[in-house]
Give the backbone structure.
Amino acid sequence: QVQLVESGGGLVQDGGSLRLSCAASGRTFSSYVMGWFRQAPGKDRNIVAAISWSGGNTAYADFVKGRFTISRDNAKNTVYLQMNSLKPEDTAVYYCAARKEGRTWGDYWGQGTQVTVSS
């Protein structure tokens, strides 16, 4: 079992930056693949980025490549999403998620944090 709590959202201007954090409970955090998803009003929840248990492998949605960076600190049970060059279309609720290797996303979610980018 793992519980996830996001922080770091807020209001930022077009072109600005934010860093989201997701603190996880549990002793087995390092065994989970971690991801960030986002959901805008009236739209589906989509994956933004994911990182392997060791941090050695990362993957990004095309719409954030080159702007966002996912990282993790297993000693602190925390995963981060550094978001640079933010655009108004990045406005959404951002969710942290965890899954075991070989399983699909959906077992563990955070409560979400709002990111709003003003033009």
In short: The chain has a mean pLDDT of 95. The CA atoms of residues 99 and 105 lie 6 Å apart. The radius of gyration is 13 Å. The chain has no helices and eleven strands.
